[in-house]
User: Fold Putative N-acetylneuraminic acid synthase from Actinoplanes missouriensis.
Amino acid sequence: MSNSKPYIVAEMSGNHNGSLDRALQLVDAAADAGADAIKIQTYTADTMTVDVKHPRFQISQGHDLWGGDYLYQLFERAHTPWDWHAPIFERARERGITPFSSPFDRTAVELLEKLDATMYKIASSEITDLPLIRLAASTGKPIIISTGMATLREITSAVEAAQGAGATDITVLSCTASYPAPPEETNLRRIPVLREALGLPIGLSDHTLGIGVPIAAVAFGAVLIEKHVTLDREDGGVDSAFSLNPAELASLVVESERAWQSLGTTRIGPTDAEKESLRFRRSLYVVADVVAGEPVTEANVRSIRPTGGLEPDEIGTVIGRVFKSDAAKGTPLTWDLV
Assistant:
């Protein structure tokens, strides 16, 4: 498990709804919620695809969010204009959180290098774009690789490409590239499997609703949690339907740290926090004033709280014996009394 609390990344994606002011509000919301970083995506429709209205460029009609959309038009609507990057990065740094991005081609890396991006994330769909991975890794910055849809062989190839280009700080994110993602297909049990197979820290890029899944991921060792954020799900951002609002993001920050703290150790036995409670286990006590020679009965000796007397299981041994000396109500029953 990680020696530090989970690193929380707020993904803006296209939830700025085409407004720089809204984008800056999202940065502020992420900072106010206590997130460690705000992430954007650096692409244009033209760097992602071509403007062709053919079924192969069209999202299936049954898709929950973008059914029937053509890729070019979706990316036009969702992209973050490149001239917004500098003010977004500046606002984040002013607010004390780390700005970074997912680049989708060489020109995106070049732009982000000019902005002194501190790290790069490879999106799930780009995990097989090994030249892009090598380019991002060659900057010497930390690399985060999302693994939605990927086989272990593809993940390993991506990691090896990054390492071969000089990356020494790599985090791999378990991910289900479905929007939104069904919890039952999130498969958090693969987090420790990926950690063992790759020998790298593993996090979670999560597209499920709410914060239950990422909190559970912490128990499996996730060191980084990425969640999409929106100011208001009712505003209709491209990803807003499965994004956290600011209050939920704040809850994720608090509860993920609490979950991490709760992992503790494998030690079984009383903890320091239980010392006071330990005093109030049951034991055998004299519960009525008695005099020497009086028999021990269920009327004058019972198992009560706190500790101090004989173990409760000794009741069968002491019943029928006699008191050696007088004892007042509230006296712990010990062997020297009977």
Observations:
- The domain at 272-337 is CATH 3.90.1210.10 (Type Iii Antifreeze Protein Isoform Hplc 12).
- The beta strands are 7-11, 37-42, 98-103, 120-122, 143-146, 170-175, 202-206, 224-228, 283-286, 301-304.
